[in-house]
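One-letter codes give the sequence; each number marks local geometry. A record appears below:


***
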Amino acid sequence: MNHKHKKGWIFLILCPPLILLAVTWIVMSLWNCLLPEILGVKSISYWQAMGILILSKILFGGFHFGKGMRDFKERKMRERMQHLSPEEREKFKEVWRSKCENGFFNRHNRNNE
């Protein structure tokens, strides 16, 4: 087996947990340095900081380290657009332009008139 590949797998397996541990430590340090003086809250432990981090992930859906699905969707859309004829492409652009030209709020106001 090639040793380069072995090192790559070890790196992929070890990096995410190490990043989580480092980010947890940063959250704990920032909390303990800033918030007790600013808001008068108690200092937190390492595990409480990890809990806050996980809770924020659940509530706000953060931690997007990669583009993931967005890249996949853009690539798929680009492939679809490449298979369209120039006339179909122009028609597609016109339809989207007409849907987007008035903006979200103006569209709703026009329907109420």
In short: The chain is about 80% helix and 0% strand. The mean pLDDT is 81. The chain has two domains: 3-60, 69-112.
